[in-house]
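Box 3.1. Reading complex inputs
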Amino acid sequence: MAGIGFTLKNLFRHDTLIDRTKAYAFSALVAAGPWISAVLTVNLFMLVAEWYIVSAAERFLFLITIVYAFVFSQILTAPWQFIITRYIADKLFNKEYDYLQASFHGISKLLFLFSFIVVVIFFLNSPLPMYYKYLAGSLFFVLTHTWLIMVYLSAAKDYASIARAFMLGGVLSLGAAVLLLHYPLRFAYHLQASNLLLAYLMGLVITYLLLLRTFYITFPFGNNLEYDFVRYLGKVPDLFWIGFFYTLGIWIDTILIWHSPYGGNIYETFRFSLLYDQAKFLAYLTIIPTAVLFLVYVETEFYDKFKKYFQAVRKKCTLGEIATEKGQLVQLVYRHIVYLLERQVVISITVIVLTDQIFIGLGLSPALKDMFRITVLGALCNAMLLVVILLLLYFEARLEAFAAAVTFFAVNLIATFWFLPLGVTYFGVPLLIAALSAFILALQLLNLYLRNLTYHAFSKQQFFLTADRGPMPRLADWLNAWQLRHAAKSHNGNGHGTCWAAIICHGVALFCSCQRP
Amino acid sequence: MVEIRTIFLEDYKQLSPHSGRKKIRLFSAERATIESFMSFRDDTDWAAVVQILPDTGKIGTAVEFLKSKMVWDILVELYDSHFSEQEFNLFYWTLISMYLPLFHLMQSEGLSADIYHPLSTGYAGLMSLLFSLKYQQPLVLTEHGIYAREREEEIINAEWVDSAYKKIWIKYFYFLSRGVYKHAVRTVALFENNSRIQQQLGLDRAKALVIPNGVDLNRNLPRGRLGDGTNIGAILRVVPIKDVKTLIKSFRLVQNALPPTKLWIIGGVDEDVRYFEECKRLIEMFNLGDKVIFTGQVNIAEHLLKLDLVVLTSISEGQPLVMLESMAVGIPVVATNVGSCRELIEGAVGDELGAAGLVVPPNSPDNTAEAILRLLRNQALREQMGKVARQRVEQYYSQEKFIDNYRQLYQDVYAANKAGTK
């Protein structure tokens, strides 16, 4: 969330109702845009599919493909998001804007490679037809890159085009869905699911291309050091692992349930749990408000006080004055945490109380109800945990954040093993316990850390300047050198060219695979 | 010669500047020792310090230790007691910059020996003290100049040190000096006055010793009369402490009285380029361009032969080897009354040989010119003083005597150590 604060602050400065609404909308967009868009689109797809009497099996295959793509693209990119966010923040601070485009190219290529490997391994022994695997893999690929570009675009000012990108993509995919259901492409197997998937994919691709356009408008200049960001794996490796363990912590109970006797298995490819997956998906929608609020508060009020404190540390203040600033900052931190907790608790309790009505309204199976309630609480704790982890990261308390993330993962893992034999009624409990305990731990660590904040502020500074040493900087340099040897003449052309090439490849491959009897 | 090892003050930069913060666990007595050390208190138990600071297993590297909570607490106490009105940021970094090389040096790889002999206090003394305590072997100190005094003068005049911190910098250097004085079994000064100053600064009188420098008499060429009464020499680096400007001003006065005279400035000109330029401008201003010759860094022996006298206008000196070498060749010296110069020219207590030259006050072109002219106009006086100079060096400042003194010292110290006495 590197540069978003500037935009938000500008919006708040005018302080009219419209601007405030815009500010919150923007934050909602950046914080939860992809999720909201996905949920809306998928649900609309389901409605459309029902309308066109797509078989339940086909609908389900489509749904599970989407879920897998979302979940695993998140797990793959989250660690990188943490690293890249830090990299972007540093580069913006140093006004080295050309590194943003460069690093985007580099990490895109890296993630291309990783997502390719993941897709191949995943679908290796799957009996699904080749074209379906191809479509699903492409979906995974596009989602990965969308998460990635959103990290960069949070620094962009052009929120209108981001919103447009998602809307247009969504609308287009729905349109394509309707079209393809009328005039489906003649896939041999899984006709309906494949067509739905194709429609959804097309919408996502359009979204991504539009985002890409916004990206290049925002960051028109790059440089040749595309793999410079790899240094940060050596500089702040803990960020990577925090992202990794945190995300895995959210999903590990789901994954274990999938592989348990309670889980189902379709086409020897996708494992699932009918009830729990739905419950979780819905429950996590309820914490979007916290994500939005956190973003707004942190990036505006908190950031100002935060900056003031660190200016006091760096400039001509006595220790007494520094202590005063610190006191105010710490107070603010706790006030925000309490505020967020209050808001979210109100929302979550409301949802829990109104569960029956919600379920009737959405036409959901009552078997889900208890699971849903538990998971809503779990999501609440998860949201608060994330808030504290992000605050810890703000203060560079990376070891503490790591401890919280690992605890989250470990407790969820162990608790799932413990509770699984106890049956369906306990689904969601491990997540709740894990999130709650990790949240409490994180709070304790934050408390301890803030007490000694000034000590940390000074001792974390570098004592003297040296050249970067270690395996990661060397790897970064090697990759940069290798890339330079193979680079095309024009830098901008490189990105665009790759894009168009990818699209054309897609089209051709799809066309070819369709022709199979 | 078994080994030459070079230790750089900036070696700490080889450490990782980001090292993770180590959880330091020390006993309260150990913490008190560290606190005393970091406050530069003279009653610090150095033996205890040497048990703690070099132990990387216990406290980590210098960087890790300085980033620890324990050190932070000590720094905050120090800040609250002496610097509470100061900008904390500057305080923190000033002190870290003092401690970083110091602590890293304390973690140097050991060097075992029978006797440790530093030639100054300061960091050389520190290293010797460290190893002396570590290996339980005696420490013998020789001071050419009084290191702590010199640092004090430098710091007082330094622009790069914030005035609030000059005191602690000076305290730091005195702390290092007194640490060595306390633990040395013998401390050598080059002349009586310096020994007295050492004792004033805390050296135990019983350990004080005077061993003057010595020069190699045989190396010097026999003195033939190549000088013709017009060549004045100054053997020095062109730096402010040698006060070359007073020299030039004196020479102008001499030049007016005796036009044929030439001034030879023999020594390096690269150390302080700005000062050198200022001197050159002064020479131009006085129109002495062809009378003052800068030889640069050359073999002194060749140039000594043609000089009639040597001038030293320094504002601070110890026991200049330059004077001894000139006197060894029988050249009379005009020197300022600093350091041991008077002792060399007029003789120490018990030395009845006479005057080997003339003593003048520092920063005084008139007096200096008068002394130079007196010698230049009187060849007999020059020869007489030159003879005294040679005799004095032969009797008191010969290399043999110098080596004998030290040999005796080492033997005494070694024997005493073996016998378990001091």
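In summary: The two ends of chain B are 27 Å apart (CA to CA).
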